[in-house]
TrEMBL record, chain A:
GO terms for biological process: cobalt ion transport. Pfam families: CbiQ. The chain crosses the membrane at residues 39-55, 61-82, 89-110, 130-150, 171-190, 258-278. This is Cobalt ECF transporter T component CbiQ. It is found in: Cell membrane. Keywords: Cell membrane, Membrane, Transmembrane, Transmembrane helix. GO terms for cellular component: ATP-binding cassette (ABC) transporter complex. It comes from Candidatus Taenaricola geysiri. Signal peptide: none annotated. It is a multi-pass membrane protein.
Amino acid sequence: MKNNRFVERSITGALSFFKDAIFADEEALKKGFLQARDARLKMLMVFVLILAALFSKSIVFIAGIYAFCVILALASSINIIFFLKRTWFFIPLFSLCIALPALFDIFSPGEKFLSFKVFFVPLSITKQGLSSAGIFFARVLTSVSLCVLLSVTTRHYVLLKALRVFRAPQVFVMTLGMCCRYVYLFIEIIQNTYMAIKSRAGGVFGIKNSQGVVAWNIAALWQRSYVMHNRVYEAMLSRGYSGEPKVIEEFDFTYKDWFWLGTAILILGLSLWQNHYLN
Amino acid sequence: MAKPLFELKDVYFSYMGKFPALCGVNLTIEEGAKVCVIGANGTGKSTILNMLDGLIFAGSGSMKAFDRNITSGVMSEPGFSRVFRKSVGFVFQNPDAQLFCPSVKEDIMFGPLQLGVQLDKIKKGVDIIANRLKINNLLNRQPHQLSIGEKKKVSIACVMAVEPDVFLLDEPTAGLDPATTRDIIDILLEENMAGKTIVTATHDMHIVGEISDIAHVLGRNKKIIRSAVPDEILLDCEFLKDNNLVHVHRHMHDGRIHAHPHLHTEHH
Ligand SMILES: Nc1ncnc2c1ncn2[C@@H]1O[C@H](COP(=O)(O)OP(=O)(O)O)[C@@H](O)[C@H]1O
Ligand SMILES: [Mg+2]
């Protein structure tokens, strides 16, 4: 029973975290530096900075890009705790797990840095291993931070529209947008159904029972998504849709946007040049 | 006598061939009329409106609209379907299906954009409609994060943006507060005064008298069992009770429980 509660709490917790993390747009509505930038050029700028971080082989340089990213976050009046929490605690932790084996001499032979034994297996951390794992971690952290920065400072649908810079077809962008909306809707349906079941069952139902409920829920969800799909299509037809959706695209960029894109390109250039120079 | 816009003759329809939804419906709707389709849950109101909007087609029997026999073939003629979509606007029962754009503003603009209206004209239209429905403050919000009532208003705005000649409304006031209901009815009445045809499906007896000159009642047998002026139907308590349109209301009177049918025509 206790176990069940734990699962229950983590699932509902994960759902609302997911909802907040992906669909909240209060940060995007604040007035700040990045919020004022044109979405298309901002997207390009982030893209260029990520490339710079990926190409650079110097951890100091990548740290510099990361610092730039944090400064941008500050200039965009983003709640910095919220920003760091989101980037530091979640995604890079996974990458640390991936990068961890590379530390050891089994995977990265080289100069021994630190040696110890785990269950009688001699292991040593090598300098080469340490530096490649460090760079890998720094790259992931920087790219993830840049992406998070882009997504929290831009409203979702604007971001989707900005995908058009990369020549994504209109139908694709629109479908993607609808997917996002229906993911949101289905999270709500799950939460509401869950609440409804709980209110009817008084929150007391055994593991066996609740597994049944979950299975039934998934089936019902498929059914509902199918019905919903049909309804949405009918609603589109009813309003004159006839194959290719027509939407308007309005973006306004100023010389400032171009200036910042230029800065990003300069950083990328610097990263490439430094690579060349170091080799 | 006005010109008939829609004519349903002995229409049968069933979902996936096994769930009957309409069993021999005859219905004529004239240009400029205000008409209600009333009936309990599951009597086929939504099905009739879907058919009037050319989204589903009669299994047997026939439907005529704008002097054409409506079949899936006719609706896929680009010329006719464009004219039809421009002329008929449908407010769905479920606003979540109706609103699929990323922002309220884009949702309102979707219809006229598809129909090729000019951009500056569309933008002006959005402002006027938003003012009329008092949804100016919602324009930049995401439709799926609104309350039910707000979603309903936005759905109506989406349809008004197309400036159709016929409004089909599926339970437009279900779940709305009295003031919002009032606003919506007033807007529909204004549209009707301007010559638009209004067809409403509802089981909210409060609004039937106002938004229709004639009410068609769907019975449990999924046919129209009575068509009359709303007042006549609203006063026929036995008939309403038989068709699940009123409920017996119990309350305390002088310390005794007392039951009587509760007509949904007035508040008490
Ligand atoms: N998608 C569907 N699949 C199967 N049966 C349906 C579907 N939609 C409606 N029905 C059935 O058709 C009948 C009429 O439904 P509907 O037109 O939605 O009624 P109303 O709008 O008056 O509540 C009901 O008996 C219902 O069960
Ligand atoms: Mg219905």
